């Protein structure tokens, strides 16, 4: 695939606010523009080596980063990958970290976290990777089907989970990795736990950022918040160990929001059970799609600079309007309201590795699941479960309070 050279990468378009601009954006969507939109974000990393370029601009950098497609054994299946590798690897290096995005997102969402993770990799003589899940981001958009019947909940969940974690295991083998520390966000955190349960010898530790699918209670998680939240520009504060009082405070806020949810939720519930995805709904609007996505990205990432917000919008637009694939997993894994059909809180005690839960203090994921999971791990003899609350952050904790999350990630990666 041809990607523009370093000097010819065009700037992102303005976020469309009128129908004509939305139409122009819709026509521009495609694999080529998707690659460009991702590379715009990654070129913000001084150690990133674009395709078709000379050696990285900073030859004395302790790391070098590049993107690639990792082909799997099944034809037309590949996983989009960012590799950040130490230029002086150490024989005593800790296991590499693998960053895993959430539902309908992509590795580009973490562009503000990669610099600090790269510093850790350079200092430790190890690597950091980020991977797009099969059927999401810029990985292969292959058909997603489930053979299990609707009333076979365990069968549906197992099939859907295997689609993602088995392809990740194949990716691990192709990359030649022995053990990994998994840093997952939202649904990516859910899959990280599932992967660790299925392939326990391959995971060193887990860091779960606002994980989906943890608690049993279906009446606390507020997925509609993702469409209405805006990003707080106040990034003060830090990661604090979760106290019962703080968890109760977050849950009280969620209960208030729950009572405000509109009656339209009933329609969304019906579509959810019928296998529709939110992105399918957006794609069905055709020319209006870019403008609808723009309303979300302009609000949710308003704390970024104007150029960064445009770049994020174009990236989100291209991966959202791409062919539907892995997104159709959602109704098999989560019931309406983002409540897991097989909650992780009932499964996680089998893990023998360190597990860290991280929530924003304005999160729409219920932290009670994390609190109970840490207790279940403890009762099973694993005292390495921890939980933190990030100040001034919602569901996208890693973007809402970049410094606090970056500091915590390094702390957890270094922890013995």
TrEMBL record:
Region (Disordered): 217-255
UniProt superkingdom: Eukaryota
Any Pfam family the entry gives: Abhydrolase_1
InterPro entries listed in its UniProt record: AB_hydrolase_1 (IPR000073), AB_hydrolase_fold (IPR029058)
Listed Basic and acidic residues bias regions: 243-255
Gene Ontology biological-process annotations: cardiolipin acyl-chain remodeling; lipid homeostasis; phosphatidic acid biosynthetic process
Listed Gene3D superfamilies: alpha/beta hydrolase (3.40.50.1820)
Domain annotation AB hydrolase-1: ranges: 98-401
GO molecular function: lysophosphatidic acid acyltransferase activity; phospholipase A2 activity
GO cellular component term, pick one: mitochondrial inner membrane
Entry's family note: Belongs to the peptidase S33 family. ABHD4/ABHD5 subfamily.
Protein name per the record: Alpha beta-hydrolase
Lineage of the species this protein comes from: Eukaryota, Fungi, Dikarya, Basidiomycota, Agaricomycotina
